What we know:
alpha/beta
Amino acid sequence: MAAPLSDTSLSPLKTIAVVGLGTMGTGIAEVLARAGREVVGIDIDEAAATKAAAALDAATARAVDRGRLTEQERDDTLARFRTFTDLRAAADADLVIEVVPESYDIKQQVLRALDGIVRPDTVLATGTNALSVTRLAADSARPERVLGLHFFNPAPAMKLVEVVSSVLTAPAAVTAVTNLALDLGKEPVAVGDRPGFVADGLLFGYLNQAAAMYEAKYASREDIDAAMRLGCGLPMGPLALLDLIGIDTARTVLEAMYAASHDRLHAPAPILKQLSEAGLTGRKSGRGFYTYEAPGSPVVVRDAATPPEDAGPVSGRPVRSVGVAGSGTMASGIAEVFAKAGYEVVIAARTEEKARGAKARIGKSLARSVDKGRMTTEAAAQALDRIRPTGSYDDFADVDLALEAVAEDLEVKQQLFATFDKVCKPGAVLATTTSSLPVVACARATMRPQDVIGMHFFNPAPAMKLVEVVRTVLTGDDVHATVREVCASVRKHPVDCGDRAGFIVNALLFPYLNNAVKMVQEHYASLDDIDAAMKLGGGYPMGPFELLDVVGLDVSLAIEKVLHREFRDPGLAPAPLLEHLVAAGCLGRKTGRGFREYAKR
């Protein structure tokens, strides 16, 4: 039996072979060569090897043009990269990274062949993002030297590298590749072996749900993508990202995740199979969820599913004055939005004192905008003058749009809508800002359900561009048109969706957050590593645990319970760890402790 790897048995990882010179392999080779490693690029397709060399030549030329490399550094980098079509070229490598197609048969064939070629102390890394590292290692003659080294695309730009250990992996191998990743300027995250690892494990479940949402015709592809970009600050919407990744690739990852988890959230949405089998795999084929100018082009062109550019056959009702019910952060933010856009605003609360307090809060917000140069002193004063605080909903008698932003309690909202029904003039639009309750239940509290609609603003309302426009089965077409016109006039981006729990953003966001909690609960990865993985690998502005602590664990739990109750999917059941923290009063930043502890203000 061969001796196990030890820290002393591993030579420094100076010569590295990259097997498979597609987009990812070429990117990894560039990173290694620019960091001073001798790189042996191997691909059985001579054209692929030639293309990889040309890509490195072009990438380094661009780097020189941008002042990131000198000509001498470029020459040295190119000299360190050699290409071959025979695996035997890896004989002297200290590390071999395989990035061949996502197939057990192909990867196992490569790893078995390498067993007979490389030195006993050579580390073998698989670049898989979907297959079991343990299964691949078990088929090797020396499983202790096999691990996962998952770079993200494009490898030169993306900082995250997931270092994946199986139960067979020697600690020395993990240490060696972790140190290499650090030396490359990457941020390595240590994870265990399960399909998708951390970043893809969380990301692909979310992408799958977005695909299912589109397939159900719940919302258009454009509205789903806009909602997640504007509501969550993501660099790309989920359907555009699926097209970029490759719909066939996404389906492969999800199949592997589902095989391991049996979680219905990971069962690939049927539309992914349909598009894949039709050859509509995304950007690379020129068509996926969207249609592109040409295969490989990022330019989206109009197709049969593109929404018409005209406003539609129905005109909205005139809106000149707005009533906002509530005195909290959301209510004052919405009132500020309308006042800045030139609307006369009545802000009503349980007492006139509370309403005056909301107006004072708006005044401070407007003053900050003046200080930051976003508006003039005169414009701020005019906006504040348009706001009239009151302690009586009777002052909503003449408003054209009455909008509530009170507590997220159905009974409270229904009572308020019954009041709107009595005091608001005929033809007034009645809107709720609920994020989780059924809009139709508010509508049924009135005698005019056709006038009721959801307008879900995001916090802080003055800054966030998104408004989810939620029609019920009873909402009138002219009411819907009115709200879309109003959104445009206050410079918000409206997205249409139906009246079901979570609408678009929360229905996609909170299962992702819940799955992150489950990863920690199962001791699969640490809070810090998961947050780093999603920021660096997924482009998220905040990691899931940072976001949970900001939103509030109690708020998050309440939304997850609503989603679980509505969709009845076991995979949506709130993670017990989240329930335990809420029960203990650890609600996030607002209490000083959630998933992390915070300094007292």
